TrEMBL record:
The chain crosses the membrane at residues 12-32, 74-95, 107-129, 141-161, 182-207, 241-262. The keyword Ribonucleoprotein does not apply. The keyword Chaperone does not apply. GO terms for cellular component: plasma membrane. Keywords: Cell membrane, Membrane, Transmembrane, Transmembrane helix, Transport. Belongs to the binding-protein-dependent transport system permease family. This is Carbohydrate ABC transporter membrane protein 2 (CUT1 family). GO terms for biological process: transmembrane transport. Residues 70-262 form the ABC transmembrane type-1 domain.
Length: 277
């Protein structure tokens, strides 16, 4: 019996390590390749760099508009996060803790949005933004991101709020708090992990977004980094892979840093929503 458990544990560890290698190896290879010259990438694609050079990174900042794309991406991402967190937190609180006839139907209405594919809305949104003069603007990128992020974000917040005891709110009201004070002074401090979870999930999706930026902007002044990386592919497919890999590494640094620093809060937020508040 013990030997069977040992064999099962060994198999489980082997599977986990194999999955980990499959997930991490492309990232390590990408980073190592960003330090190689184009010739070395062609002749020794899977070896360690012969000379560790930052020339590719220097060329990326000197010869491209990567900093502009990073700035645009940061503006869009953080604007979206502020709106998503504020709207989903307040809407979730209202739907769970403020009893009115349509709250269950409104919650259903919001959650249905999770099932709507982004692709089917691109043409209607494009026509609408063209009519209102919103193409090639930050609003054209922010509005759809917020709209498509709200259903899942509201669902996460409502899951947490459902475990917050009503007695806590009643006690605050008895002490003289109005509904806004209850939310900002009593409820909001309890939702830190949930807020970080919502912000982290949406940060990754918005930072990596390609489809909205590629559809609603063709002006370089508003391009995000996901679309800007296309510029490293030259005419007839000619590509300086060293610079391309360096640019990709720069673009994923914020995502890696976000995951490393906020991972424990995300896990806690998921647990809060799934188990208890």
């Amino acid at each position: 019996m013990r030997s069977k458990k040992t064999a099962l544990s060994f198999l489980l560890y082997f599977i986990v390590i194999a999955i980990l290698i499959v997930q991490i190896y492309p990232l390590i290879w990408l980073m190592l390749s960003s330090f190689k010259s184009s010739i070395e990438l062609t002749t020794k694609p899977f070896s360690l760099p012969t000379i560790w050079s930052f020339a590719n990174y220097a060329d990326v900042f000197r010869e491209s508009d990567l900093l502009l794309y990073i700035k645009n991406t940061a503006i869009v991402t953080f604007s979206c996060l502020v709106l998503i967190v504020f709207l989903s937190a307040t809407a979730g609180f209202a739907l769970v803790k403020m009893n009115f006839k349509l709250n269950s139907k409104l919650l259903l209405f919001f959650t249905i949005g999770i099932m709507i594919p982004i692709q089917v809305t691109l043409i209607p949104l494009f026509i609408m933004y063209k009519d209102f003069g919103l193409l090639n603007s930050y609003l054209a990128l922010i509005l759809p991101q917020v709209g498509f992020a709200l259903p899942l974000s509201i669902l996460i917040f409502t899951s947490f709020y459902s475990y917050v005891p009503n007695e806590l709110i009643e006690a605050a009201v008895i002490d003289g708090c109005n509904i806004y004070q209850v939310f900002y002074k009593i409820i909001s401090p309890l939702t830190i992990n949930t807020t970080v979870t919502v912000a982290s999930i949406n940060f990754i999706f918005i930072w990596n977004d390609f489809i909205f930026s590629n559809t609603f902007t063709n002006d370089k002044q508003y391009k995000t980094i996901a679309v800007g990386l296309q510029e490293f592919i030259g005419a007839f497919g000619a590509t300086d892979w060293g610079q391309t890999f360096a640019a990709i590494c720069i673009s994923i640094i914020p995502i890696i840093v976000t995951y490393l620093f906020l991972n424990k809060y995300v896990m806690a937020g998921v647990s809060d929503g799934a188990v208890k508040g």
